[in-house]
# Entry
Amino acid sequence: MSIILRRNLRTSWMVKQACYSSNAQSGDSAKTIPKNLLEDKQTAVLQKENGAIFDKRPFKLHLDKDKTYSWCLCGKSKSQPLCDGMHKNEFLKIKQRPIRFKVEKTGDYWLCNCKQTTHRPFCDGTHKQPHIQAAVK
# Structure
């Protein structure tokens, strides 16, 4: 993992930790956050609200190329970072729905556990912001 520091502290990504697949070649200076292959085929962009902060650090998970996963957005799942259907409990009145995703390559990926990422479901370093670090003890 590499940490990218930005000079303008007023940006929302003042400290951005790039969390990407372990499949990237070492020494590759152009590493990027993985892309959700189902991003244009689902309604995740219509869910503007973020879920409850579950943890202040990402979770490393081995993902297979041709498998579809459901990432928990509500933050209430007992099988974090993946969805276990907790959002279906009508008594909890949870508005968020899971984010369905696929990956390009089989490998280890860092999935967001703070539920505040702008690159759902992948970690983009948002958990490093002070208000998220303070929210979870």
